[in-house]
Amino acid sequence: MIEKFKNIFQGLDRAHGVTIVGESNGDGNKINGKSFVKREPVTDNLWQKHLNGQDSLGVIPINDNNKCKWGCIDIDSYAGFDHKKLINKIKQFNLPLIVFRSKSGGAHVFLFTENYVSASLMQDKLNEIRSVLGYGGSEVFPKQRELKSKDDTGNFLNLPYFNCSQTTRYAFLESGEAASIESFFELYERYKQQDISTIEIKRPETPYSDGPPCIELMAQNKIGEGGRNNALFHYGVYAKSKWPENWKTKLILFNESAMAQPLSDIEVNIITKQHEKKDWGYKCNDQPMCSLCDKKLCKSRKFGIGQEITFPNLTDLQVVALEEPYYYMNVDGDRLYLDSAKHLTNQSLFQEECVKQLRFNPPTLKTNDWKKLTNILLENAEVTEPAEGTGTKDILRNYLEDYCVNRIQKDDFEDLKNGGTYTKEGYHYFVFDNFFHNYLSRKHWKVPYQRTSQMLKDNLNCGTKRVGKHKLSVFIVSRFDKKEETYKPKTFKKDNY
User: Fold this and answer.
1) I need a surface site. Which of 238, 270, 278, 386 has the fewest CB within 10 A?
2) Mean pLDDT of 87-96
């Protein structure tokens, strides 16, 4: 059972997700908890503990080759979500998807492949699918098209079938009933795909097929209360572009045909006057449009957003916990690396990094809007430990060893004021000022002077001492063993020539 489950949900093997479940707030909403990435291999023991109900396992779908064997649409709805309705909608579009109940009561909609496919292909296909299903605002896993480095871990998803014999995270049969793990294996064999690029998202041809995809879907499914005014305003932008002479008539007709209950004449008139005064842009970030969005398809359509510059969707901030932390985040599904907090406090620096790494220059938000956005990202950020050997303390130790072993060796204490180190009786002696200003500064070391001094004392067991006839203040540390490298000449056989 473990091997079957493991083969289906394989992902990044050098790290995994851990979630410590908190208490429910009692209103039927999501249970609070703490999530973090653990930089340890995904062992058979972890898979076993997950299925046994001991420790829940989170797997990162994208591997170091930027490929994956599964993807998921995470539908965050918690109170009384109708899974059977979703299953029927998936059937309507004839999509090879399996619906699971998530740990919060929402839905995880999985697409499985027999062999590895590129993460970008999986992401694009699921973005298309979530749009036609009406969940354009839901998260898609993998969240990254690529990992930026061996230090980057991406984002994990909590797997189904935790405590598999009594699980609440089960797959649904087509009937809407819960599937045992054995029944899920049968579903998997039936729905796994050889080539997801061939999956067709059959959108019905409509009078609006040259405009934003969300308008097609709104007209098809009828717009309910709560989103009608936004939807009609949004449609007005499309109508003015396509029918500049009679867009007002088209606005009235859309209100009558696309609304579950049409807006009043007064409300239609208000929206008409708004469009008479000026030309507006699409309201892509507002409901119900954002739940039906397919940005890639929209850009390709004659009256879609085209080359209109819209602010990207910033999600999933990861903080690598160092003295001077660095960050990863997703920008419309692309991975962005930020080496300093300044890129979050200074919008211009953030834009510069987008230009360098993503070849895209986002529009500028108002100062308060930028602060609100970054505060939300920071509040929900996932904190992760740095990769082994890359922590601030590790780096400082390596720098100190290099300085003590490989730099100029002095003949006595009196010469130390000019830099370098003096080694005697199992100890290295050095002047901290010279180490910090003449060595660390050239390495672009970012930890402040006082904090670096304290790190040497607390973490590397450095002491201080006054030496020589002039009582020079120095740092003292146990001698580092000099690494001796031996060269082994290669021997060639005749066949090598």
Assistant:
1) 278
2) 93
